[in-house]
Structure formats: structure tokens, C-alpha cells
Amino acid sequence: MHDVQIEPLLERLSRRHFIPGAQLAVHRGGITRAVEFGVQHTDGPPMTRAARVPVGSVSKTFTAALAMILVSDGDLDLDEPLTEYVPAAASLSDRLTARHLLSHTGGLPSDSDEVTASTLSKHVAECFRRADPLHEPGDGFSYSNIGYSATGHLIEVVTGMSWWEAMSSVLLRPLGVAAHFVVAPDGPQDAVPGHAVNPDRHRVVPVHQSLTLVDAPAGAIAASAIDLVRLGRMLAGDGPRLVADAELREMRTPAEGAEPFGMADAWGLGVALFEGGWFGHDGTGDGTSCHLRVHSESGTVVALTTNGSTGFAMWRELARELGVGDYDGCRELGERLTSTPPDCMGRFYNGDTEYSVMPGENTPLRLAVDGEPFAELTLYDGLLFRMRDVGTGDTTQTGRFLRGSPGRGIGWLQVGGRLARRAA
Length: 424
What we know:
Helix content is 25%, strand content 25%. It has helices spanning 6-16, 58-72, 98-103, 120-130, 145-159, 163-175, 216-219, 225-235, 245-251, 311-322, and strands spanning 21-28, 31-38, 53-54, 194-198, 203-207, 222-223, 266-267, 272-274, 278-285, 288-295, 300-306, 346-350, 353-359, 365-369, 372-380, 384-389, 397-403, 410-415, 418-422. It is globular and about 55 Å long.
């Protein structure tokens, strides 16, 4: 990691990306440095060190760490069929395990459009009953919020507590982190609001969090950058010994069958893996973007929280300037294709979500998600593609088409780590 002055760096990048407020914490050489910039909301108080920002999917790493505490204590077996704990899993597969849920290799769709249940147990049962599996457990990677709702319910079964109670008492309190949740059974708790940012128009608008109770294990935690550093230090083996060393190593070991193209270089249990020995997670709430990176060999931890929707682009720059491990799918792109295979076009499904690929105007192909324009696609060798986001113009994201088997037609689309299968 590079030696840089983090305070002017945070201010410069926040201003460039029109971020209202941000926190940056870096733990290195046994010392934690933390700086803040801006305001909690456009007409509100300044961003403080203790302010808690909705961290989105970084919550999955908290949920995974909680599950691994139970594994360390002998209360949960990663490879026991999930049906032993959650009978409703029998409607899906008797091969599904907690390891599959934590590594996104269970074949579960990402989300459910029809959420009618108000408890994790009923929601998970409904999802398992309605799910059209993308593949057999262990045979591929597809990022799944449903899988983490199921992990949250599994934690409830094993502990006899709600996910919120178990998270607070088993993980957060021992870490020295005050529990704050975007959504909870007794109502939402105070958190920094997110903001929709339009850089071209210099427009910044506050937005509300829309997370439901049943999605809580996948994205409900609100935390400061200092809080994220505490979690990262524990995962690096520095801090409270809540997870045994063997389980910590297992978390950062590449999971079998996990190919998270478009998201990370590999995937462990609850964490993405990056080149150079880095691991962590990224998360977006409504108008927030937060990031955690850990380097266990050196004990370095870097955490960024932002309350602006352009925070992901800001993180990319910050990671480069700090020399922190991050994913760059563009480095895998080879020669640009001069012709477009006709079987790229069509409709692909991940659960209830429809991905439509059609001829483009400025590029060979365009992608719509549930009928809404999403990105323009430029094709490269190996059926990889670079996406140009129609809303932001960002061109750093990549995806790919996959054939069912060698010599056969395209049967799959992978975007943002999510698999979508061609409609029959």
C-alpha cells in the first residue's frame, strides 16, 4: 500500500465526484488513521467519525462472520445439508449447504420480486418453494441476496435469536461496534441518508432507504468507516478472537466453483478475493457506496463510506492511489470483435429479473433490465463485453456471455456476478 496523505486525498476525490460526505479509515502498522469530509446530508450537520452510513452489501460480510463464529463454536456445520437446519430447503435441493450460501454457489436467484412475508423464516420458505435454480449447488457462481436472507434465517435457527439480536450480541458488541440497522423489527434507526448524484448537472438529491425486513442479513447494517476497520481487523486475526484461525483462513480461501466474473478475482465465504492477497466487500445502499479491504499478511485494513451514488467510481480512484487490491475486469479484455454472434441477442432470466440483449445504436449491443435501458455493450474475444452505463457513462464494468457447452449456442449471461439463463 502506498504512503499518501489521506485527508487531502479524500477531500479531492469527494469533490471530484460530488460526494456530500465521506469517511476514510486506514489501519496499518498497528495504527488506525481516520478522516472525514463534508456533510451527512445536503443541509445538515458535518460528517463525523461516529456517523453511521448504510453499508449495503458489506452487511453480507458481517452476516458471514457471524455464521463463522457459530462454525468455530461447533454449533453450525458448513457442509451439513441445509435441510438438517431448515426443512424448507428440501423443496430446492438436498445438496445445498451453508458453504454454498456464503460463497454464492448455491444456484439461487439474486432477488424475489414478490415479497409478501414479514419474517425471515416465511420469506426463505417462499423463496425456496418458488425458486427456479440457476444450477446445481456448487456448480457455478451467481451473486444472491436470497442466499444471505437464508443465511440469516439459518443463524436464527441455530442461535434461537432473531438475526438482529444475534448480530448485536454475538458479533457487534464483542467487536466494540454499536448496532445500527437501516431496517429492524422495532423500526429503522438513525443513519446518514444517501444521495442520488448527477455529476453532469451537479445535482445532489437525498434519497430514502428502501430495504425490507427480509433483506436485512444481506444489507441492513449502518456503520462508520472505523466500525468497518474493526470488522476487517478481526477477519485478519487482529482483535477479538471471535472466529478461529482455521475458519478465518477458510473465509479467504477461493470457494470451489466460484467464478465471480465482473465482481472479483475469486470468492471465499462472505468475502470477495482480489489480487495481491486482498479481500473484502463492496456495498451500495440507496444513494450510498461503502467499501472494505483487508490484507491479512500485513494486517492492513482500508474502509471507505460515502453518502453519494457516485461513491463506487470514487472508490476505484481511491484504491488505485492507495495501492489497495481491487477488481479490474477490463484487464481481461482481449481483441475487440468485428462481428456480433447472432445468438448473443435474446432474453435471459435470473429469477424474476429479465435481461434483454438487443441490437445497439452506437455499440453492437444494448442491455435492458426489466425493460429499462441499462448499458451499451462492446464485445471482445471470448464473448466478454465492456458495459457503458446509460445513466452515468461509466465504462469500468464488464460481463460475459457463456455457452452451455463447447460448440453449443450461448445459454447464459453474467452481469454484476449474477447469472441469467436464456429463455426457452
